[in-house]
Amino acid sequence: MPKKISNEFNVYTLIDKKKKKEKLSPTEIKWFIENYTSGVIADYQMSAMLMAMFIQGMDIQETAALTDAMLESGEQLKFVGKNVIDKHSTGGIGDKASFILAPIAAACGVKVPMIAGRGLGFTGGTVDKIEAIEGFKTALSLKEFQNLLNKNGLVLIGQTPDIAPADRKIYALRDVTATIDSIPLITASIMSKKLAEGANGMVFDIKYGSGAFMKDKKDAKALAKSLIATGKRFKKKGVALITDMNQPLGQAVGHSHEIIESIETLKGNGPEDLTELSLELAAYMVLLAGIDKTIEKARIRVKKTITDGSALEKFKVMLKAQGGNPEVVDDYSLLPIADEHTTLLAPKSGYVKSFVNDKIGLLLIDLGGGRKSKDDEIDHSVGFVFHKKVGDQVKKGDPIMTIVHHASQVNVVAKILEKMNKEVITLSSQKVKPLKMIVDKVI
Amino acid sequence: MPKKISNEFNVYTLIDKKKKKEKLSPTEIKWFIENYTSGVIADYQMSAMLMAMFIQGMDIQETAALTDAMLESGEQLKFVGKNVIDKHSTGGIGDKASFILAPIAAACGVKVPMIAGRGLGFTGGTVDKIEAIEGFKTALSLKEFQNLLNKNGLVLIGQTPDIAPADRKIYALRDVTATIDSIPLITASIMSKKLAEGANGMVFDIKYGSGAFMKDKKDAKALAKSLIATGKRFKKKGVALITDMNQPLGQAVGHSHEIIESIETLKGNGPEDLTELSLELAAYMVLLAGIDKTIEKARIRVKKTITDGSALEKFKVMLKAQGGNPEVVDDYSLLPIADEHTTLLAPKSGYVKSFVNDKIGLLLIDLGGGRKSKDDEIDHSVGFVFHKKVGDQVKKGDPIMTIVHHASQVNVVAKILEKMNKEVITLSSQKVKPLKMIVDKVI
How confident is the model at residue B6 (pLDDT cuts 50, 70, 90)? Predict the structure, then answer.
């Protein structure tokens, strides 16, 4: 039963105000969100408000008020000690950095509370990926979540309805009303959840490019600034790296394959781009936690957790604590891996010029390694391995990428191979500059 | 049961397009409106689209396409002969001009098909007003409507679900999502209904000021231009007068009182402003119908229908044809009129400076002469009579306005009297220029 609406404000007047590009006060925003969450304000009124917010914009004070209202709609965790540092990535193709940076940071003494999502659109989800490890439980209570964080320094669970339920309801509406890609709305959505997780600092990986939600570097930087500024309003320190997502991160795309690549990176054998990004994000977590005074010292500390094996050890601790088999780290045959390999060979000599990155995500869905609709099962065993990066020289006949699939999938594999060749990967006869991974930073 | 959505377009993509201020094609608009009307597109998606249309605007081609889509959602009447001319007023306080101009135009040989609305917000409705005459039926079938128009040259019915059902559904949504006052949306709403009524030309009375939906003269002119331009796309001739609504039109406000004032105007005893406006609108109807070649000749013709009694006769014909007692024209005691009169006397000498006109409409609702919610009964017997116009000189103690009410209403009358004095009517010690009735014209 919807609660009776308080007559402090009026739904119509507030929509009208934002429509006219006027500023909404924090109490007005709080009133609107509370009454929407409780079911008093209808979806069709909220969607009109969201479109007005989208087009007319929200300043930093309004964004903070929206964040606060969504934060207060659910439970809020509190952690003592300033070493609780959270990480958020806007997501991309092959983004498995969380599995690497969290154990690294935890091995340095940071406490890393991770509440992660499932696959959305063309990008895979952290929760889906870790579930490639049989038995790993991501559905823990907030109590268990807190206990494991205090005990082990890292914990990874899926999103829970207890945290920011207003955001969940609003996000579902934005998803069907073309109001997703608004910087203030994205900021409030991310920050309300991150603040509820009780971290004292946050490191953001804001991706742009063909494999990210933000296609444009300028938009990514604007989002980064908005997140950091909003965090400051809540007295949270933050760092945001602006990173390139115009080619897959690392080499592996697909659930089991990304877990294996993460473990290899923790062992010191990871691809250069993934290693660089994971270490840099972890170093900023160490810095924000106050463990080191300078980023240079933090960089040295995080590197050491790879060479001394302490990061890999933390990863095993997390697996064990949440029901996964830690032996997977030494025996990849414990993971589901499809039997067949089909490799795309370079049709001509030249240089890798570009990837249409979001298409890779959609092709993985075609292969069964992602969801077409909400209730689809994911096949963790299939995936892609990319052997080349932008700028790499290739000779005709060199392997460019490999599809890992089931024997029964010959038809879909043939189609994917053709699309990879014609629509995803472009070769150039002229030399191409490699892409820089980390292009900018907002503190 | 909602129909299956055609996959010609995608709801999300079209909302996204308008959100980005891109132009929608006629087929895209038609697809969206059709699927909303049939229930396939949800209210919350339509309201996001309406807000995007509101803020980002629609050009004349989009407005015409929206009009066309809403027009085609329902039945469309067709009349032979170019003398079928419709009239639309955007409404205001004391606006009873339809009851006067329609019989005048009909007496000149124009066929006047009127489909009118009920009271909305602070303005009264034409249908509510005519129902002060006992037995008058406004719920006729479209067949009866056509027959009476052909037979008598005028007919007045209420809105029917057969005409532009898409507009009805969209209007209800606009009403609760702050998307009413958009010129393209208003244009499509008005024009879809007017075009469905089958008229070959249209005369518009676009009001601005404190007693109109458009507060600003500039907005009124923009709406007038939009209506005329949209009409032209459908090969309909049109004239729009921009008229002042900063004081009540005529003297009477309230249902029975407005009917009496209309009849008095048809007899040649009407207030100057109401007479001027009704004659001018009727003259343009005569001109558009092709009965006269110049507006000057049309003006002479319409005046004659008052002096020779032919307009009053047409009014009686309409009453008789639709079940009302034509004797009301000579015996006002056949109308419900409350017994008591309470008069506001000028508290000081001076000049009438201004009226806060929309408050008059709200005070009439307080008196029982309007609806607070959709299903309220209207008391046709109560009302206000304003004895002064802006610019009139008053002496202390002169009657300014009179409340006609029931004996039981002493408390509410006292409050209304106080508000009329303190919040509605302002007197000035300095001379004030009278307001011009017709301020501009769009052809």
Answer: low
CB pair distance less than 8 Å for B48 and A50: yes
Tell me which of B193, B194, B237, B255 is the catalytic residue.
B193
CATH architecture of B337-428: Alpha-Beta Complex (3.90)
CA A37, B179, B59, B114 torsion-angle sign: positive
CATH node for A11-57 = 1.20.970.10
Report the amino acid identity of residue A317: V
- Could you tell me the fold of the domain covering B85-332? Pyrimidine Nucleoside Phosphorylase; Chain A, domain 2 (3.40.1030)
Interface ipTM above 0.85: no
**How many CA atoms are closer than 13 Å to the CA of B343, on its beta-carbon side?**
9
Determine whether A292 is an active site residue. no
Q: B3 pLDDT exceeds 50? A: no
Calculate how close chain B gets to A19, using CA atoms only, in Å: 7
Active site annotation includes B167: yes
Using CA atoms, how far apart are residues B20 and B25, in angstroms rounded to an integer? Answer: 14
pLDDT, tens digit, 9 for 90 and up, residues B412-424: 999 999 999 999 9
DSSP string, B125-190: -HHHHHTTSTT------HHHHHHHHHHHSEEEEE--TTS-HHHHHHHHHHHHTT--S-HHHHHHHH
Q: What is the pTM of this model?
A: 0.85
Domain residue spans of chain B: 11-57, 85-332, 337-428
Which residue from A minimizes the CA distance to B51?
A: A48
Average confidence (pLDDT) over A120-124: 71
